[in-house]
Amino acid sequence: MVGRGRGPFVAATPRRAAPGRVIPEGCAGIGTPARVTRGPIQSLFPMETVMAVLPDNREEQIVFCETHNDTWESNFAAIGLASDMVTLLKARTVAARGALDAALEARLASKTATSEYYNAVALMRTQAALCIDLIKAHAAQQPNPAVVYNLAQIPLPSPPSPLPAVGKPEDFIITLQPSGAVTLSWTADNAAASSGAFFEVTRKLPGQTAFVGIGGAPGATNRDRRMAFTDQSLPSTSAASGAQYIVRGRRGEDWGLPSDVVLVQFGFDAAGNMTSATLQMAA
Known about the structure:
Layout: H1 47-51, H2 58-74, H3 83-140, H4 145-152, E1 170-176, E2 182-187, E3 197-204, E4 212-218, E5 227-231, E6 243-251, E7 254-258, E8 262-268, E9 274-281
Antiparallel strand pairs: 1-2, 2-5, 3-4, 3-6, 6-7, 6-8, 8-9
């Protein structure tokens, strides 16, 4: 083909992207065929250069485009863009904003629905627990509770596990009362009075061959975690050589380990009155 007055006509050679770079769809210049790619769109420039302008956050990217679209549309030729490129960007910006709004609305709806779900289950659980309590109370009044449990299709209550034995008494403290009585106090594991724990106290005086029971004390309470027993029957004539005690806990007929022998020595003044008491644990 021959041009008019300008010599032979030479067709423009399509511009190719540099190796490793693909000209994205919608960004082809005159004489440059657009190449549709699959997968992530690659930039004509290094990605770090583009991302230095575009924000990292998706919502901020939408705001960026919204604030630049009108300016780019008004000045597309002066800044090297084609009109249809800016038109496509504006359409995609509107779509992105709509998708964001829909996502935020869906998240709010999900939170509201989840809260309503939790509240509904809580009300159901409270009502179900009330029904189960009434079923159990009714079953307890029947000669054969299993019939009620089977009819209600709920499991029979498991038999209570046996409580551990009352622990061995230890950590003794001896206190001499003004009256001459002696108070022993101690600690022990698994010794709550509410669980039925009780402690027997036995004593052996000089000349006796066996320990004799002299009383007892209930287990520990929330107010006092130490158990205590006051021996008010200690003969002053026998106290000169000291007295031996053994404390042992039980719950019903289930006995725990006895304490080590507690040897109590007494001090006397010139008039023969007891003035002090010291404790010694027998080896």
